[in-house]
Amino acid sequence: MNGQAAPQQDPLSQLRDIHTPDPISWWPLAPGWWILAGLVIIGLVFLIRWLIKRKNHQTAVTLAKSELLPLKEKPANKQNLVDALHIYRRAALTQFEQSLVATVSLRELSESLAAQHNKTLAPSTIDLLHHAQYAPNISINEKHWRLLIDDIHQLISLLPNSQLSQRELTNV
Fold first, then answer.
1. Can you tell me the distance from the alpha carbon of 159 to that of 169, in angstroms, rounded to the nearest whole number?
2. How confident is the model at residue 37 (pLDDT cuts 50, 70, 90)?
3. Which residue has the higher pLDDT, 153 or 163?
4. Using an 8 Å Cβ cutoff, are 139 and 80 in contact?
5. Where are the alpha helices (DSSP H) in the chain?
6. 3-class SS letters over 46-94
7. Are 110 and 157 a contacting pair, CB within 8 Å?
């Protein structure tokens, strides 16, 4: 030992620099976010389909009303009566299932709609709805014609807010 000690090395010089971890990325998403995104997309698809269907129903009812108004000014005859009843049935077909509307008479449909909304129909309207479409010769006076058009207009207005089933139609 000769009196001199070996030079000591600085232990801190042997350490490496500190490396921070990579920043957390927002992509790829965790599985929970994928599930949430899928549910939101499915919900939006159903909402859009519902809005389109609702808009189509409202458009059909508005169109039926606009087709019906000129008939009120026309004379009361068999052809105009048939035209009014066709407009009414087409409007009903846009709201209810085809099998429901096709299997009942317009009188039954009208009475069910009126009962559901606490409305009353003129007796002449009920009679015309029941017999007029298929009667070979029918005479309609102007008063009954105007009442029929007004009642059909009212019934068409009730269509978007109605929920009828086959049982309700047959119980009238």
1. 14
2. very high
3. 153
4. no
5. 31-73, 78-95, 98-102, 106-116, 123-131, 142-158, 166-170
6. HHHHHHHHHHHHHHHHHHHHHHHHHHHHCCCCHHHHHHHHHHHHHHHHH
7. no
pTM across the whole model: 0.66
Other beta carbons within 10 Å of 27: 4
Taking the C-alpha atoms of residue 26 and residue 21, their distance in angstroms, rounded to an integer, is: 15
Count of beta carbons in the 10 Å neighbourhood of residue 49:
10
The SS3 call for residue 133 is coil
155: tokens are 């019934």
Query: Tokens representing 46?
Result: 């159903």
Report the pLDDT value the prediction gives residue 162, as an integer from 0 to 100: 75
CA-to-CA distance for 41 and 33, rounded, in angstroms? 12
Q: Please name which of 5, 148, 170 lies closest in space to residue 72, comparing C-alpha atoms.
A: 148
Tokens found for residue 17: 């620099």
Q: How confident is the model at residue 87 (pLDDT cuts 50, 70, 90)?
A: very high
